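Worked example 2:
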Amino acid sequence: MSGRYATYPSLAGKRVLVTGGASGIGAGIVEHFVAQGSHVGFLDVDEASAQTLLARQPEGAVAYFGNVDLRDIPAVRLAIQTLREQLGGGFDILVNNAARDDRHAIDDVTPEYWDDRMATNLRHQFFCAQAVKPDMIAAGGGSIINMSSNSFLLAQGGMPAYTSAKSAVIGLTRGLARDLGPFHIRANIVFPGWIITQRQLDLWMTPEADAKRAQGQCIPDRLHEEDVARMVLWLAADDSRLVTAREFIVDGGWY
């Protein structure tokens, strides 16, 4: 990372849990916390990408990976406990990043698909927060950062189950902020815009779509993983110690 960006002393040695950390935005978040001297555990179902990410971390980095399907809550709880043991203590920071923005038409959605999308994009955020809550209470505070999306703010179609789940992150986060605030645990939301990950390039980026994105944003530059990660770092650090129940949109001014 460039030396032009902030270093947060309060993040050094903090234990961080990142969901969906093997690739895309999640991998950028993992690498940015590692660069701050944090001790990072991340969960993902993609072992190959996770091992590639671990292999490129600098010597001395403290990072561990838990291979788990986040739809399986008992397995998630077990994976979090394993990461605690590997990192030598409970978590100070949780970044609920994992999601899948698969496209789907209204008429193709079955009750089973709907439930699977809620499990993929929303449910694990609550249960991960529930799992680390005792850690943060014992530590005297903590920070939970939940990922939403600007897609529903823009009234984007073509994925109603995804946009429903991502809009529900607002209610979840504000409720957590109220219930956990007395313990000095903060809960905030980051709304990424169209972050140009490899997945987006492979599946949906066309010249026409890119032109529409650039026209919609106030600042037309493409957004990348590090643009989201730097917002996450600030929300995790003590610099934002009294910021909670708030929403932060990183989309170049599109919404």
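The first strand starts at residue 15 and ends at 19. The domain at 9-248 is CATH 3.40.50.720 (Rossmann fold).
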